[in-house]
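Retry 2 of 3 after timeout on previous attempt. Resubmitting structure tokens to design endpoint.
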């Protein structure tokens, strides 16, 4: 009972979410709907959590962390390697997959080398958000924009490549804030990762990704992964952070209620009649309140300013934990209970949001012209 009580006390983001949900229900005089929850996302997270926990249990992440540490000579280089890896994974396997894969890996590395924590954690999250903006399948809002406006891959890349270049330049420059202090000398450990277990983990991950990327119905891939874990190590089910899943359901319910409010819809419709600059800023600001995926659904109902919408909702993924579900997922994966870490995470996110949003705002006419179809 003590361990359960301690676990519940540590779920600060979960309790905050439930309190906000109650307040939103009262203020908006509206009840949540089960259809507000994106169950595809919940199933994806559950499957990925199972696979990630399996990788931790067979020491695969510890082994990989040792390899990354051996490639780097300083704390700065470790962050740069993880940032590059986050960008690559986010481009091709979505920002959620990048977060679920790399935050646990970062925690394992941090435990060994005791370097900076807040800035690397935040940069990995920011890179996952902005790296996913490059491809149509990197995140849900891109996939929706790509399909809704019937874009070709060439037209899509005309919009996304400039943002990716500017974003990565900013992120890599920021990594130089991290001291180039030498890593402690670590004695190599023999983690004894069994080939059979690694093969099972790899197959489970591929099955999960096939569902996440919609090659196979997600419900089938989830059942397969659950069955594999049941037969190999059912103890893993007790190690999954179910608080994260409940938190995500809570956020979906909050967003669903807010997205149905007439005053929000009216304000958005009026704003989008103004200009591309206003459309861009609306995408950013609305993302801070109802998350960038629902913001995309709402804005595309009233505007065909594709470039401004795309830039607004992707840049708008920075900022509040609600701006992108990847932000919330990163905080939960990192088990952030410290006020100092949370404030630092949010401060860096908002600094990046302001700097990147300003650069894109100043370049918006040129970016619209460059991406003209």
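Retry 2 succeeded. Sequence:
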């Amino acid at each position: 009972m003590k361990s359960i009580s301690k676990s519940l006390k540590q779920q600060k983001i979960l309790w905050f979410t439930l309190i906000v949900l109650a307040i939103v229900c009262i203020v908006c005089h509206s009840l949540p709907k089960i259809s507000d929850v994106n169950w595809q996302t919940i199933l994806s997270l559950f499957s990925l959590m199972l696979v990630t926990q399996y990788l931790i249990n067979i020491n695969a992440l510890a082994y990989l962390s040792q390899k990354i540490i051996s490639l780097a000579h300083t704390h700065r280089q470790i962050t740069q390697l993880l940032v590059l890896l986050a960008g690559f994974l986010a481009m091709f396997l979505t920002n959620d997959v990048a977060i679920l894969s790399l935050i646990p890996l970062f925690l394992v590395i941090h435990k060994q080398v005791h370097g900076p924590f807040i800035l690397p954690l935040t940069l990995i999250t920011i890179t996952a958000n902005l790296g996913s903006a490059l491809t149509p399948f990197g995140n849900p809002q891109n996939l929706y924009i790509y399909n809704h406006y019937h874009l070709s891959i060439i037209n899509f890349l005309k919009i996304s490549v400039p943002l990716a270049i500017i974003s990565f330049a900013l992120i890599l420059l920021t990594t130089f804030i991290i001291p180039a202090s030498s890593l402690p000398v670590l004695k190599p450990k023999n983690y004894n990762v069994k080939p059979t277990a690694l093969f099972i983990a790899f197959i489970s991950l591929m099955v999960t990704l096939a569902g996440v990327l919609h090659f196979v119905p997600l419900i089938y891939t989830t059942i397969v992964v659950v069955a594999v874990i049941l037969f190999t190590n059912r103890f893993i089910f007790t190690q999954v952070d179910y608080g994260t899943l409940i938190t995500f359901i809570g956020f979906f319910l909050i967003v669903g209620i807010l997205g149905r409010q007439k005053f929000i819809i009216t304000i958005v419709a009026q704003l989008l009649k103004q200009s591309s600059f206003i459309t861009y800023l609306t995408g950013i600001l609305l993302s801070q309140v109802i998350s960038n995926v629902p913001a995309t659904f709402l804005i595309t109902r009233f505007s065909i300013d594709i470039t401004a919408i795309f830039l607004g909702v992707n840049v708008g993924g920075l900022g509040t934990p609600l701006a992108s579900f990847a932000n919330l997922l990163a905080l939960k994966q990192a088990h952030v209970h410290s006020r100092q870490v949370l404030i630092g995470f949010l401060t860096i996110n908002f600094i990046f949001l302001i700097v990147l949003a300003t650069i894109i705002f100043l370049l918006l006419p040129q970016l619209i012209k460059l991406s003209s179809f």
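Attempt log closed. The chain has a mean pLDDT of 83.
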